[in-house]
Write a structure and sequence with these properties.
Elements lengths: L17 H20 L3 E2 L5 E3 L1 H4 L4 H5 L3 E4 L2 E5 L4 H10 L8 E10 L11 E10 L5 H16 L7 E7 H9 L10 H8 L2 H4 L1 H9 L9 H11 L4 H7 L5 H16 L5 E3 L13 E7 L8 E5 L3 H4 L7 E7 H10 L12 E5 L5 H13 L4 E3 L6 H11 L3 E5 L1 H6 L1 E6 L5 E5 L2
Parallel strand pairs: 1-5, 7-8, 12-13, 12-14
Antiparallel strand pairs: 2-4, 3-4, 5-6, 6-11, 7-9, 9-10, 10-11, 14-15, 15-16
């Protein structure tokens, strides 16, 4: 008989039982260790924000996916991503912060999305952001962090590749060409072309030509845009760009820096990468498994004008979001998702109620030494206690029966060797 809906997790969300929680904690520890080694500091913000924070300059898709509600005349939303919240925090202390900032977060986010493999409606995300550095050295450092994380979780060279583009380059090129008379159409155009992999070139052309849409290109212009998105080298992109485009110089410099990190060979120029969020202004990137079996492992880019859009000062910024769902799928595919034990050191068991106080004192003494100790709470036979402790990965079992109590000792069984010894019970 099917469970009633109230007794099931909402579709697209997850329960984390102990074994899944251990894997989640392990992954988060890798996120935090990479960030620590790169000199980033962790911050956090409320799960619930004013909905307007996410609807201003966010892009059509994310607005449609908001979990939002009105309470006491306030329109609120569960955060779909972390960047606007970080921007709000930076704006609140803009005059007192020492730039550049190197901040990271590991947070839970919600989007009411169509679910596919690797895509849920609730996920956790590792964000790293640099505020106050206008040069591509910040992008290079962030991309190096992504590859450092991949190496830490066991993914070898080339198993994940980054596709990289410049929104600034695309904007320069289109505004010198098909958008010369309609520069305001660039942002909605990016929303449409970001769907290229999902809906195909013909559907993108149709949307770009839609007379009721925000772009309204001719069929020939729309096909030219799609052809431009097929560019896969910086030299070819430079040939299509206005002469002296600073975005081309930025791209070339970025690849020089990536070469210094030793990761340039795993990063590809791909003019079709535009990212759907409207606030991106420069370099944008996405990482995929090399076989492209999954959706993006992570993505990000530069958003130099986001703070201004929120009413704050002009502070350049760049960052990425790295979700927990796709990387877990990828690690599982490669047999790299660890099966982690409980991390239990000892099990203490009183074999009779008369020995329970002594067992409690033994357990408390071991816990004071920093050991992870499970105290058996009810009555159980020694054979069952030993079997359960071994299954849980404990190192030792401490048994107190009438004989041990009389002698003032506790019997200690080493589960690895099977040897036993007596220890004082006080």
């Amino acid at each position: 008989m099917a469970k009633p809906p109230a007794l099931q997790a909402p579709r697209g969300t997850r329960d984390f039982y102990p074994e899944e929680m251990r894997q989640r904690s392990w992954l988060f520890a890798q996120f935090r260790e990479v960030a620590r080694r790169m000199g980033f500091e962790e911050v956090d913000a409320p799960v619930v924000e004013h909905a307007e924070l996410f609807t201003r300059k966010a892009g059509e898709e994310i607005v449609e996916q908001l979990y939002h509600f009105t309470m006491h005349d306030r329109h609120l939303a569960l955060r779909p991503e972390m960047t606007p919240s970080i921007a709000r925090m930076v704006m609140a202390r803009a005059g007192a912060l020492r730039l550049p900032l190197r901040w990271f977060t590991v947070t839970q986010n919600w989007r009411y999305e169509r679910m596919t493999r690797g895509r849920k409606r609730e996920h956790f995300q590792w964000n790293m952001d640099v505020w106050g550095e206008p040069g591509v050295a910040a992008e290079a450092e962030l991309l190096a962090a992504i590859f450092a994380l991949l190496a830490r979780v066991g993914l070898g060279a080339g198993q994940v590749r980054v596709q990289l583009n410049s929104r600034a380059l695309l904007e320069d090129t289109l505004r010198a060409g098909v958008l010369r008379a309609r520069p305001d159409a660039f942002a909605p155009l990016c929303v449409v072309v970001d769907k290229l992999d999902k809906i195909g070139a013909d559907a993108v052309v149709d949307q770009l030509c839609d007379p009721a849409g925000a772009v309204q290109l001719s069929p020939a212009e729309a096909r030219d845009v799609v052809a431009l998105l097929g560019t896969r080298s910086i030299d070819d992109a430079a040939a299509a760009a206005p002469p002296g485009s600073p975005a081309i110089a930025e791209l070339r410099r970025l690849f020089e820096l990536l070469d210094a990190y030793g990761i340039a060979q795993y990063v590809d120029f791909d003019a079709s990468v535009v990212r759907g969020l409207a606030y991106y202004t420069g370099i944008v990137f996405e990482a995929y498994d090399a076989e492209r079996k999954l959706r993006a492992v992570c993505g990000g880019g530069r958003y130099d004008r986001l703070l201004e859009a929120l009413g704050g000062p002009s502070i350049p910024a760049v960052g990425f979001g790295f979700g927990d769902v796709v990387i877990a799928e990828l690690l599982a595919d490669h047999g790299l998702l660890p099966a982690l034990p409980r991390g239990l050191d000892d099990v203490v068991c009183a074999l009779g109620e008369a020995q329970r106080a002594a067992a409690i004192r033994v357990a408390e003494r071991l816990r004071a030494e920093g050991r992870a100790v499970e105290l058996v709470l009810g009555e159980s036979r020694p054979k069952r206690v030993l079997a359960d402790a071994d299954k849980a990965g404990a190192r030792s079992v401490w048994l107190l029966g009438p004989d041990e109590a009389t002698r003032g000792v506790v019997k200690v069984r080493d589960l690895a060797s099977g040897t036993e010894r007596d220890e004082p019970n006080s």
